Amino acid sequence: MKRYGLAISGILMVLVSVLVLPGFHAMAGEKIGFVDIREVMLNSDAGKKAAEEFKKLLEKDRILIQERETELKKLKDEVEKQSSILTETARKEKEAAYQKKFRDYQLLVKDINEDLQAKDRELANKMVPEILKLLAAIGEKEKYTLILDIGTIQVPYFAKENDITKQVIEEFNKTHKPQK
Fold it and tell me: What is the pLDDT of residue 27?
């Protein structure tokens, strides 16, 4: 039985070397590039401009949220300070008013987050197809077999000299025409 096991192991090793190793030799001649599309979006001129606009929107929303938080804190402090002198009915009305304002605040924060996410998706929808088109042109021109987006898939190791992210940013800055 042990003799058959060794024979089967030997046959498997021969099959692996015949079938798999030529694949490795073929892959060794392939040119694989790596890019981080998210980094291209953030560090290109168009991405930086969009980030500035995004930052302005965020600041405007942050001020609105802070105003609502201040109102809520003031109302909560008022309810707590007056709770001993208010009638049960008046205290419940103030607590209900506070709860309503708190729900409104939560809805405001949720709406703002959804708006920001929608703007982020909108930006990605505008830029990604153009970046992919550029990557296809670079891949074809420079004879890449494959270009992987290291921003979306986990790649434990890659040769840094095959990272074309900076090249893509430079090319994107040259070719990108902002949509009006």
Answer: 56
What is the CA 79 to chain-centroid distance, rounded? 42
Query: What is the pTM (predicted TM-score) of this model?
Result: 0.66
State how far the Cα of 162 lies from the Cα of 25, in Å rounded to an integer.
19
Contact of 175 with 133, CB cutoff 8 Å: no
Q: 44: exposed, middle or buried (C-beta count within 10 Å: 0-12, 13-18, 19+)?
A: buried
- Res 109 pLDDT > 60: yes
Residue 150: which of 64, 32, 58, 54 has the closest Cα?
Answer: 32
Distance CA 167, CA 138 (A): 9
CB atoms under 10 Å from CB of 77, counted, come to 10
* Sign of the Cα pseudo-torsion (24, 25, 30, 33, in order): positive
pLDDT tens digits, one per residue of 53-86: 889 989 999 999 999 999 999 999 988 898 889 8
Q: Which helix (H) or strand (E) holds 68?
A: helix 45-82
